Amino acid sequence: MNGAQALPSILRVFGDSALDIVPLFLLAIFVGALIEEFVSESFIARFMTGRNPGTMLLGSVVGALIPLCTCGMVPLAVALRRRGGDLKHTFSFLTAGAAVSIPVLLLTWKLLGLSWVGIRLLASVVLGLLAGYATVFVLRGVPGRSATLAGRDEVVEMPGAAFDLTPLRGSSRFRAVWRRFLGQIREYAPWVLVSLALAAVVDVLVPGHWIHILYGQRTTVGSLLASVSGIPFYFCSGAELPLVKELLAKGMGFGPATAMMLAVPIVNLPTFGVVAKWLGPRPALVYLVMIVAFTTLLGTVAGLLV
After folding, report:
1. pTM, full prediction
2. 201 is in which domain, residue-wise?
3. CA gap 198, 279 in Å, rounded
4. Which long-range contacts (CB under 8 A, 24 or more apart) does 16-22 make?
5. Helical pair 70-82 and 269-279, crossing angle rounded to 10 deg
6. 179, 167 in Cβ contact below 8 A?
7. How many structural domains compose the chain?
8. How many other CB atoms sit within 10 Å of the CB of residue 126?
9. Where is 205: in which H helix or E strand?
10. pLDDT tens, 235-263?
11. How far apart are CA 54 and CA 136, in angstroms?
């Protein structure tokens, strides 16, 4: 199929998918804006310290439900670290929150079905726990930079980040929600469109046997390839779903799909840049390598169990 023949098909698939996804996408973003406005940092900060494993689990679950992607989670995690959160709780919260959120779970239900909602939430919480406990050993020498941040009123920012650590003053709650809603649309929408476009290209141009060769195995290789697929892009959590849905239809394995949904919001160049601002380049690289290893492991386990 040449380009002239393929383009109408790609545009048709793109349009059909957009009509199916965009209404729920907007609803999910609005729900996220409501939660973001009415759930305070001080409430979240209660779960960011302690030696009880239950606090780690709670911190990871709370992080997984916060309606922010990586670009919003990093400034929030830095702020909570400055307010006394320890390193393992902070990274557990950050990692689970970067991988999933309530709006993303709604989109997952819409595109992939209810079973994937439970799988994604559970896998994201486990990923947060693995990352949190691993940082105690792997990044124990890092607090130099984190401690510097702890003594300054500095915010790590990412271009387009929708989260603002400074509360709005003189504005009604409705205006605040509306502002957050528009901010999250600006953050998510471009990457949802990119994912829809890639999904349409895959649907029309990529033979199914290539997807099966790359991602169809129930082995570690397929999950590893899926975990590093997001490096050239910056997919906010949830924006990758149209692409994952199309890859599953083309023969992608259950394990690689799990690994891809967990990894691509975190394992990418922009995330490396913003985490490096917080920790420094070498620890940030170590963190991303850990995420690749853990998502590959979780994808492999998921593939073996299903």
Report:
1. 0.71
2. 3-305
3. 33
4. 17/196, 17/199, 17/200, 17/242, 18/193, 18/196, 20/110, 21/107, 21/110, 21/111, 21/192, 21/196, 21/241, 21/242
5. 10
6. no
7. 1
8. 19
9. helix 173-205
10. 677 778 888 888 888 888 889 999 999 99
11. 17
